[in-house]
TrEMBL record:
<dbReference type="Pfam" id="PF00440">
    <property type="entry name" value="TetR_N"/>
</dbReference>
<feature type="domain" description="HTH tetR-type">
    <location>
        <begin position="34"/>
        <end position="93"/>
    </location>
</feature>
<keyword id="KW-0238">DNA-binding</keyword>
<feature type="region of interest" description="Disordered">
    <location>
        <begin position="1"/>
        <end position="32"/>
    </location>
</feature>
<dbReference type="InterPro" id="IPR009057">
    <property type="entry name" value="Homeodomain-like_sf"/>
</dbReference>
<dbReference type="InterPro" id="IPR001647">
    <property type="entry name" value="HTH_TetR"/>
</dbReference>
<protein>
    <submittedName>
        <fullName>TetR/AcrR family transcriptional regulator</fullName>
    </submittedName>
</protein>
<dbReference type="InterPro" id="IPR050109">
    <property type="entry name" value="HTH-type_TetR-like_transc_reg"/>
</dbReference>
<feature type="compositionally biased region" description="Low complexity">
    <location>
        <begin position="12"/>
        <end position="26"/>
    </location>
</feature>
<keyword id="KW-0805">Transcription regulation</keyword>
<keyword id="KW-0804">Transcription</keyword>
<feature type="DNA-binding region" description="H-T-H motif">
    <location>
        <begin position="56"/>
        <end position="75"/>
    </location>
</feature>
Length: 206
């Protein structure tokens, strides 16, 4: 029988749990904190796409491989997490436009990748956001498209934003493959060329 006077030994932390003093450096330091934040955003994008924006935040934490304490240290609530997902989506589109050899086609491929994986991003592109933040994010997408637009392109930047919104309206289906198929079909009907549907990837030396 355990002596009540003896101090209780700390229990082992579950995988991904934030256990201070556990001797593990997994959740210590700015680099790991940034990695956890990025993992939470990526996990939220997947979970929200699968289960909707009302998905339990515990599912996001599990998918990211961190504890819920870590989630709430980075994001005060569901709105903050969803906003971070949208901001990261737009940031990746901006980075894709700044990359070597970037073109309107390649950037639209990245836009389409995010459309097929983020219901919140789809709503943003349909210009449903009435808030200041939503308008600012949509404005950033507009700026990217205007910057990548080749001379003599048949569509203006405003037209491209409308086209993106129209394509996002076609993105529906139970599977990722079906959503991508419908998105590419919609672009084809609009006679807009789109590059490979893929996410932005950081250069290998970063």
């Amino acid at each position: 029988m355990t002596n009540p006077a003896e101090p209780r030994k700390p229990q082992a932390s579950a995988p991904g749990a934030d256990a201070p003093g556990s001797g593990r450096p997994a959740n210590q330091g700015r680099r790991v904190a940034a990695r956890n934040r990025a993992a939470l955003i990526a996990a939220a994008r997947e979970v929200f796409a699968e289960q909707g924006l009302n998905a339990p935040l515990s599912a996001v934490a599990r998918r990211a491989g961190v504890g819920q304490g870590s989630l709430y240290r980075h994001f005060a609530d569901r709105v903050a997490l969803a906003s971070a997902v949208l901001d990261e989506n737009v940031r990746q589109i901006e980075l894709a436009a700044d990359g070597p050899g970037a073109s309107l086609k390649s950037v639209l491929g990245v836009v389409t990748w995010h459309m097929t994986r983020s219901t919140a991003f789809v709503d943003l592109l349909r210009v449903r956001g009435d808030g200041k933040e939503a308008r600012a994010l949509a404005g950033r997408v507009h700026s990217v498209l205007a910057r990548c637009q080749p001379a003599g392109h048949a569509l203006s930047a405003d037209d491209l934003m409308l086209a993106v919104a129209m394509v996002s309206g076609a993105v529906a289906g139970p599977t990722l493959a079906e959503r991508e198929r419908l998105a590419l079909r919609a672009w084809k009907l609009l006679r807009v060329e789109v590059g490979p549907v893929r996410p932005w990837e950081a250069p290998a030396d970063e």
